[in-house]
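Fold sample X.
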Amino acid sequence: MTKIITDTDWKQLWQESKENGNISRQSKGFETIEQGNLPEICTFYTYWTEIRNGLSIMKHEIEFIDDLVWIRDSLDNYRFGLSFFLSGKVRIERHGLTNDTDESVGKYYSECNCDIKETEYWKVGDKFSRIYLEIEPQQFFQGFGKEELEQLPIYLRQALIGDQVQPYYHQGKITSQMRRVLHAILQCPHTGLMKQMCLESKAVELITLHFQQFQEQEVHDCNLTVKSLSDIEKIYQAKEILLSNLENPPSLMELARRVGLNDFKLKRGFRQVFGTSAFKYLHDYRLEKARQLLVSGEMNVEEVAFKVGFNSRSYFALAFRNKFGLNPKQYFQHCQKSV
């Protein structure tokens, strides 16, 4: 029999299980272990530790008693992370972001989970385990220079500079190097501070290997060509959709779905046709539109920023100055003197 639960149901069952002593929680130093069972739902084990500012590591195991459909309808926090699947399988639909994806042994994903609702499909008797690295970009990448940050995936750069964060999901394959690092994490022989240092070094190594795979995919995508006139028309259509939604642009996944291309083909093709990425194109267009609005004098700086889709006035000022040499207020005053 397949059970169906919502997040509200889950939270209620969790609270009842804690009150009835079915869930135990132990914390020692920087480590926390939570384990137990939700009657007639599942058994679980979770190990969690914050190994440095902006970086946590979690090992999670769960096994369901019946087939289960879990409607995740209250995911309201930004979360950046990497998830590496060690055993089991689950099928997940991220509404408005991906079609059904199978998350299983040998795969991992990178994500920015921005209030994306999910439906998860679990099978009875299939013990699922994973290692999850949660990253808080503002803390983890603090102290990196602009040139280094330019090498990061766009979904992380957006979080760092305060621009509007777009939901993101990309699945990759666990390489042999990643497997060795994951094994070292699971078999870490140390305790206390030495364990924390060991886990930190291995977690950073996993992140590095992910970035390496990301960059290799980017190079591969740029070497491929889009030759179909139909595909080129769809890329131009994608551009028009972006420019008509400055205040709330769709994610790359959603944009690809709306024009009928897969996300890699859209990303690759957009760069070939316009010489830059879709969201760099959008970024530059926003700034040019802002410049035109400031010249017209019909709006003040804050109104212009929000009109073209910048939620952060400080980031708008920084981006404008980098492109035009003056901050928006100075540019506005200069234009008014010239009238």
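Fold sample Y, listed below.
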Amino acid sequence: MGSNKTSWGYFPVAVVGIGTRHACGANTTDDFWKVLKEGKECILNIPPERWAIDNFHDEDQTRQGKMVTKRCGLIDDLEGFDNLFFKISPREAASLDPQQRHLLEVNYEAFEDAGINPDNLGESCGVFVGIGMMDHAIQLVDTSTTDAYTLTGIAHSVSANRISYAFNLKGPSFAVDTACASGLTALHLACTSLWNRECSVALMSACNGIQLPDITVGFSALGVLSPDGRCSPFSSTANGYVRSEGWGAIVLKPLSQALADNDHIYTVIRGSAIAANGLANSLTMPSPPAQEYVMKEAYEKFGVSMSDVHYVEAHGTGTMVGDPLEAEAISRAFNRTRDNPLKIGSV
């Protein structure tokens, strides 16, 4: 595992618990690994209980209010929720964004997987959530149905605070929305809170729920969706990405504490860094110089040699614009430090 401190005074962070909810019924780490190992197809035609796809599908991307794809990756039983387990009344549960519902469940499962009783944490545990989609809020815009639970049911800030409330956690607690980077930004902030000694345990989670066609229509208009519903990162056949649902939660501890507690350690986080594009070719287009900078910054800041890296898990959207730019940034960042090939990919 190496030393528990770097020359910058930071320390490695251990992942000691995981809760997950993905398509293909992958609701445990073993399930998820089996899906990857078997190359299982988890992208299916959008079922009628989500929306009537024939009313929205059109191969012509320029058609207003239409989408070029019929496929998404969706979890089983989006609306299902054991509200009584979390001491939430049926009336309040009805207003609760499914993103909040499943966040409660996967965070509980992460604690359970880590063998940690949250009742023993209190002030020592922070909560960090990456969240962005607003489908549930859009569904509840009718003021005739607004009640006392509507605002807390849709507010992204409450997605983190509800976890703190449910498990009586009194450390830092907030949600962050940085689009596709929301989960990794929440992870960065969770690690930063540990390094700043604001908490000694961090509960980090992220989610993406799909309830309405509206957001998919918008992404289709942007030209980033795969018409055939297949995402092929860094491939000559790449023609866009596929929208999918997912929830994940992890429990983080300083590596030294995890070793002292004899925890099961899934992996170790050596460091992290975040940055923005600044002024680029467009608001939504990736910037290779910015991506190169943030990668180099992370490795330099935390004393990790880039020549020791064998694999990079990329964003890998499978778009004709995003993939080449990301590959260029990775090449620029790593190629000057190595003689052997670097593998890249994207789950």
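Sample Y note: Residues 273-347 form a domain with the Peroxisomal Thiolase; Chain A, domain 1 fold (CATH 3.40.47.10).
Also: The chain has two domains: 13-271, 273-347.
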